[in-house]
Amino acid sequence: MHHRTLAAAATAACLALGVSGCVESGRTATTAPAEGSACPWTPEESIDTTARIAWQPIPNADVVVKDLGLLEACMPNADISWVQAASGGDVVAYYGAGEVDLGLMGSSPATIASSAPTNADVDLDVVWIHDVIGDAESLVAKDPAVTDLEGLRGGTIAVPFSSTAHYSLLQALLDAGLDPDKDVKVINLDPEKMAGAWQGDQIDAAWVWDPTQSQLIEDGGTRILSSADTAEAGRPTFDVGTVDAEFAAQNTEFMEQWAKVQDHAVTMIQDDPQTAAESVAVVLGIDPEDVLPQFEGLTFLDAATQAGPDYLGGKLAEDLRTTASFLLEQGGIDAVGTAQDYAGHVDAGPAASVGR
Predict the structure, then answer these.
(1) By percentage, how much of the chain surpasses pLDDT 70?
(2) What CATH number is attached to the domain comprising 151?
(3) pTM: predicted TM-score of the whole model, two decimal places
(4) Is the Cβ–Cβ distance between 198 and 206 less than 8 Å?
(5) What is the mean pLDDT of residues 14-22?
């Protein structure tokens, strides 16, 4: 995930509902957080860490954290900067260049980063699950007569390579008995370029996420499959929070506060989605009412759930290794590590610290 693209610049006005953290008129995704944003608890003034965070504008709690300036409010003496990324592959590259300390990416890029040869250049830990991907990533066909993958035989399908969408597409093609190298033409295309290729009849379909997914559907496209379908087939995908392992080891208090802030934003989406949608709307440049259906395409997990055996506390490492086995078959990595290797790149500590 991610694996996600930059949304159009937002110029949304303040959507005043009388709630804390409402954005002021004219504020966009690239401007400072709303004045008066406050930490929901007593700020940790002793933390003075310098942290560079790679983010992607997708409808989850990380965007809410950024937009409301919650990290800055809860750690006022930390030096926090945010770096935009177009995809999870870009985030991995930022890590390799030493340009970021934390970053959001899809589970597929996280697997690549934890496998040979990339693991020789970066040392990442997965410390958070921003969301479990469902209908938020889908295969959309241009021709309304196409209702399944077989109908795309001989056609061109666009997808951002090395993304969770790419992983899901390749799995779906193989499950449908289609050779990704022979029966269809799969091209690497950033989401922000898909609408132009779609309108120019250069592609027949795209597996992509919002806001591009919704744009293509509004333009007459039809959803054929989604990542919810591939998850049901035993291959779930996630948007995950990652951190440089050395940074995490040296900044335990920062990571615990980071997880606490992320958990607070998840609770906002779960308990007060309208308020959370206002922040996401600023970043994506859309109406808050259009954000709410996008929330429904993702599953959000609180810290206690994440730290348990079904996710960071156990099964996620198995899912990463399953992903690695598939990527090896497709030539995306050189070798699959042991179960212990992938478990070593998953750290439930920050999530488990929330509420202690």
Answers:
(1) 90
(2) 3.40.190.10
(3) 0.83
(4) yes
(5) 26
Say yes or no: 204 and 319 in one domain. no
CA distances from 66 to 134, 159, 228, 292 (A): 23, 27, 27, 18
Enumerate the H helices of 2-143 as residue ranges: 61-68, 70-74, 88-96, 107-113
CA distance 123 to 336: 16
Chosen domain end from 232, 248, 269: 232
Residues 145 and 54 in one domain: no
The answer to whether position 39 is within a domain reads no
Q: How many domains does the chain have?
A: 2
How many degrees, rounded to 5, is the angle at CA 302 between CA 269 and CA 229? 80
**Rounded CA separation 123/79 (Å):** 22
Are 320 and 346 in contact by the 8 Å Cβ rule? The answer is yes
Pull the structure tokens for residue 144.
């309304």
- pLDDT exceeds 50 at position 258: yes
How far, in Å, CA of 276 to CA of 67, rounded? Answer: 10
State whether 228 and 241 are in the same domain.
Answer: no
Q: Is residue 268 a contact partner of residue 61, using CB atoms and an 8 Å limit?
A: yes
Average pLDDT over residues 10-38: 38
Query: Is pLDDT above 80 for 2?
Result: no
Residue 14 confidence (pLDDT): 27
Edge-to-edge order in the sheet of strand 137-141: 185-188, 156-159, 205-209, 137-141, 222-226
pLDDT at 184: 98
